[in-house]
Specification:
The structure is a homodimer of 259-residue chains. Chain A is mainly alpha-helical. Helices cover 68% and strands 3% of the residues of chain A. The longest helix of chain A has 34 residues, at 84-117. At the A-B interface, helix 1, helix 3, helix 5, helix 7 and helix 11 of A face helix 1, helix 3, helix 5, helix 7 and helix 11 of B. The structure holds a DNA duplex (30 and 30 nucleotides).
DNA sequence: GGTAGGCGTTGACGTTGCGTCAATGTCAAG
DNA sequence: CTTGACATTGACGCAACGTCAACGCCTACC
């Protein structure tokens, strides 16, 4: 019964702890660095030794980690700076939001894939000019703020089916008007072309959620010029205006109008 | 009609492109660094200038990015090294798997929160000894491989309800036997205690998905010693064995048995 | 023509949670 | 004493940029 012979060491080196709990020594040193789990003792040689209390704390850490909490958050909870129930509630909310985001994204990918398989390239006009009101929620939100999409969708959904039909028809008619003018070999600077350009820009401005609708004249200018360039550069756009020649006419008219 | 006066520059500086497309100049330079979108021209001053083709490529990049593809993957698709349909299919699978993972994790957090609110601390014995077969899928998978959970669950689900009841009863009976021995002030090294220790370890080994069942004697040893220490260190464990004193008895017996 | 201010450039660090060397010291065993 | 296993402290890597920092270029105004 010597003093130095304790029945149980109650103390383990780092690899033992790692093996017991299924983590790695690197992880334990990382937690040490972050201060969320410090060894019970550090030997003269610098070795880390953990005790039973440390093991328990580690298990709590691992459970909370498995629940998706961040390490700083775990530190807060363990040190009682934060109520665990509150932390878990917030985590549920975060996970729910992330789930929704993924669901929408997945649906978006599926629709895109289906459209490609249906043989049709996606309608570029709708994609970039007016924004598809089902496919690009995340994109719109990220680019122009979280409420941009909400406003845009609210605007679109506030329309009756008849009005939606009407808006789509208007777009088609504008395109046909462009094609006619281009075929007639009119000048892009002629009054008719400029009137059409004005209508085109008005339309772009009318769709909430795009830079054109932001109210900033410079953003509108950049957006219109960028679109005009793409009408020409991408044949899928150009097709909406009767081909590249038609698209060049539209571009010229828009540049003159807004330039 | 001088040669130098082109009607349209068809070329924009970096901020113009950023404004048009809703990204940032930093992103464009990043894409340049990665080689997925290079400027049409770089001026003598080092300035980047993009043309219509670049705008179109950028829009394609942004769409694919919005669909969740990684930038290297986008590069592959755009350079036609990879079929876009294949890429999208894989993306759908990835998103589905991630969705499932999040759903399980969220459910896990909810159950944990509910358990805490129900007043009962979670049953530590079930949590770490035998593993809860609904709550710790991710944890088990990450620690001991993707099929560990599958094997473990298959094992548990292969039991009839009667057998499940039986297993739980056995666990409870073992605990009661421990409590009895401890109260009787028996020696942890006595045959009865060692027999119980043997049964305890057999039980730990019988549950697939734990380090104890891995077949590695060293892993078993570390796992048993770690658990024994935690029985003492955590009162929630200790409660299963009639308190700290009972837990110390169990620990001593297990350490003697496996040591 | 000098200067302020705005836009451009190239580094380089920060983020999240460790994995993975690299260089080197320590300890138990043969 | 040597070997080999295990320990230590850096430090880089990953994904996709955000965010300074330090400095050059260009336009406009005085």
């Amino acid at each position: 019964m010597s003093e130095t012979s304790s029945r149980t060491p109650a103390e383990w080196p780092i690899t033992a702890v790692a093996a017991m709990t299924g983590t790695t020594s690197r992880t334990l040193r990382h937690y040490g660095d972050l201060g969320i789990l410090t060894p019970a003792r550090i030997g003269e040689n610098g070795y880390r030794y953990y005790d039973g209390a440390g093991l328990v704390r580690l298990q709590r850490i691992l459970v909370l980690r498995q629940l998706g909490l961040s390490l700083p958050r775990i530190a807060e909870v363990l040190d009682r700076h934060t109520d665990i129930e509150t932390a878990l509630e917030e985590q549920i909310e975060r996970l729910g939001a992330e789930q929704d985001r993924l669901a929408r994204q997945r649906e978006s990918v599926r629709r895109t894939l289906a459209a490609i398989r249906a043989g049709e390239e996606p309608d570029m006009t709708e994609m970039f000019d007016g924004f598809d009101h089902t496919q690009y929620k995340d994109e719109v939100e990220r680019r122009w703020g979280a409420d941009a999409y909400a406003r845009s969708t609210a605007w679109w959904e506030s329309k009756t089916p008849a009005e939606k039909q009407q808006l789509k028809r208007e777009q088609i008619e504008r395109n046909e008007a462009w094609v006619e003018l281009a075929r007639a070999d009119a000048s892009p600077t002629a009054p008719e072309a400029q009137a059409l350009a004005a209508a085109h820009v008005d339309w772009l401005r009318s769709v909430p959620g795009t830079p054109a609708a932001s109210g900033d004249p410079e953003a509108l200018r950049a957006y219109v010029l960028g679109l005009a360039a793409m009408y020409v550069a991408d044949e899928r756009f150009a097709a909406n205006y009767g081909g590249t020649a038609g698209a060049e006419f539209v571009r010229a008219a828009l540049e003159h109008y807004i330039g």
